[in-house]
Amino acid sequence: REPVRSICCIGAGYVGGPTCAVIACQNPKIQVTVVDLDQARIDAWKSDHLPIFEPGLRDVVQFARDEQYSGHETRPPNLFFSTDIDSAIVSADLIFIAVNTPTKLVGQGAGSASDLAYVEAAARRIAEVSTSDKIVAQKSTVPCGTAHTLRHIFASVAQNSDVNFEILSNPEFLAEGTAIRDLLSPDRILIGSNTDRRALQAAERLADVYAAWVPRERILTVNCWSSELSKLAANCMLAQRISSINSLSAICEVTGADVDEVAQAVGQDTRIGSKMLKASAGFGGSCFKKDVLCLVYIAESYNLHEVALYWRRIVDINEYSKARFAKWIIQSLHNTLDRKKIAILGWAYKKDTGDTRESAAINVAGQLIAENAHVAVYDPEVRPDQIISDLTQHHNTDALAKKVSIHKNPYSACEGASAVVILTEWDEFKTDGLPSAVANVLDKEVLEVPLVSVPRRTSEDSRGSSERSWVRDDYSRDERSAENLAESPVFEPKTIPLRLCKK
Ligand code: NAD
After folding, report:
1. Residue 503's pLDDT is what?
2. Which atom of ligand 1 sits closest to the CA of residue 140?
3. Where is the active site (predicted)?
4. Which pLDDT belongs to residue 412?
């Protein structure tokens, strides 16, 4: 069969960019062009400041995007980024659709159904401009039946009836923060297709692209419905584990059981396994919530109300976890946050990504601000304008400027704070600098995991001059001293054993 020579990927986001960079690296003979409507995003992909942070991504992109010299040989670049969508479509044999599929905000299914407007727009563009046969591989996470719908769109829009479109489902299973590792060594590649000869051949041609580095036995070919549902099912079952352990952590707190001990004991059961069993303030990220809600909507559409209710509770428990987390902080500070500074370390929804979509930090910070706290935020990878945009999108903007400050280092964020809340499990919060100092004044039992630390007074509680921070005003990186902090006569740290680990 004809090998694929040219790939176009529509959507240069968290999925399209890293996936195509790895495909290009592993297939030097295939020309890979990633296109997007967003000029700024494309410019960033062409620069040294990639639009997303992902460990290992820069090396992979540079390897395939820039000309490489070794001895007398050169490796010409085969990874390109462009906003010229039409040209990339025309010259491609294989087109990935990797555009966003957020939850619908208005109309039928608002609040749970997936918004397929971007997928449909991309498909229409392919149908309108194509002049030769194409394999269209749907990579966005979509409801079951989308491949079927796309076939209708192609049949009705295609100008040139001689052009054949083979629609495949090829969902992406990478997780942000480990995207390159996941792409280089995937648990499986899933390809859904129809069962006629042409469709199966298209699936094989796509499989050949992955077979450049993925063992054949890990490339699964199934029907389109199974492929689409498997992606949703995987995310729903992962989200379900996090909501399960979070609901158990609530029971632990009232019974005296330790949620980490429970997670370890349960996780060592090989039938269950240890992953995704860290209690947290709730899962975040762009996928879990929207994908669970998408499954809820599918179940509702088929009148499977009990099934819909079951999955909806996974999201409900997640909202409850975030609310319970903020409540803990408020209660630990004597039920008032008025004029108190709370340091928030970490804004991304999990470590090793700058992505803040659905981050629990946005919700928790909003609840603290509503209690009149001043929130001081530090995150190593999230830009200040993103933090402001997250807060203004989700919360009342009145007087936000006075209630939020964004810091370039954790030390100034913590200075004078009544509490330090670690909301992203960045390694630097576990091992380096200030967090070590924080860790030294905390219960040793919880040193290795992100946690919320709320310093609590042991002397009479009052405002004014005695409202000293456990982080000294003159505290500097070089002179930090755990002993000084530990010996403070005013505060005794209280730890809240809620550990954070998201998707
Ligand atoms: P994203 O928002 O980061 O990127 C999507 C990109 O598509 C945007 O840059 C947008 O400008 C572009 N786009 C939208 N419509 C377009 C069009 N008609 N033409 C050209 N460009 C267009 O989204 P993402 O995180 O990469 O996710 C993409 C899909 O993959 C979603 O369905 C998501 O659920 C799924 N997914 C995401 C992850 C993840 O970890 N982020 C993992 C697996 C699957």
Report:
1. 24
2. 32
3. 287
4. 85
CB neighbour class for 254 (10 Å; exposed up to 12, middle 13-18, buried from 19): exposed
pLDDT at 200: 98
- Radius of gyration for the chain, computed over Cα atoms and rounded to the nearest angstrom: 25
Q: Rounded to 5 degrees, what angle do the CA atoms 135, 137, 140 make? A: 160
pTM given for the model: 0.86
What DSSP state is assigned to residue 338? T
Please name the helix (run of DSSP H) or strand (run of DSSP E) that holds residue 64, with its range, or none: helix 57-65
Specify the pLDDT at position 73.
Answer: 85
Does the ipTM surpass 0.90? yes
The pLDDT score that the predictor gives to residue 432 is 52
Spell out which residues line ligand 1, taking CB within 6 angstroms: 10-16, 35-38, 41, 85, 98-101, 118, 121-122, 140-141, 172, 174, 176, 286-287
How confident is the model at residue 398, as a pLDDT? 66
pLDDT given for residue 140 in this prediction:
98
The per-residue pLDDT for 427 is: 87
Is 100 annotated to bind ligand?
yes
Ligand 1 pocket: which of 43, 53, 174, 286 to mutate (most atoms within 8 A of CB): 286
Cα–chain-centroid distance for residue 336?
Answer: 32
- Give the domain ranges of the chain: 6-214, 224-503
For the chain, which ranges sit under pLDDT 70?
A: 159-160, 397-399, 431-503
Q: What is the pLDDT of residues 222-243, one digit of tens each?
A: 999 999 999 999 999 999 999 9
Architecture of domain 224-503: 3-Layer(aba) Sandwich (3.40)
Q: What does the CA dihedral 155, 138, 390, 369 come to, rounded to 10 degrees?
A: 110
Taking Cα atoms as reference points, which of 449, 447, 494, 451 lies closest to residue 470?
494
List Cα–Cα distances, 106 to 8, 112, 113, 115, 309, in angstroms. Answer: 31, 10, 10, 9, 21
Atom of ligand 1 lying closest to residue 15 CA: 26
Distance CA 118, CA 123 (A): 9
* Distance from the alpha carbon of residue 243 to the mean position of ligand 1, in angstroms: 25
290 CA closest ligand 1 atom index: 34
From the CA of 286, how far away is ligand 1's center (Å)? Answer: 10
Catalytic amino acids? 287
C-alpha span between 92 and 193 (Å, rounded): 19
Residue 22, both tokens: 């790895």
Let me know if the fold of 6-214 is the same as that of 224-503: yes
Please enumerate in sequence order all residues whose Cβ is within 8 A of that of 261, keeping only pairs 6 or more positions apart, or say none: none
User: From CA 379, how far away is CA 498, in angstroms rounded?
Assistant: 19
CATH architecture of 6-214: 3-Layer(aba) Sandwich (3.40)
Q: What is the pLDDT of residue 239?
A: 97
Cα–ligand 1 centroid distance for 171 (angstroms): 12
- Amino acid occupying residue 473: D
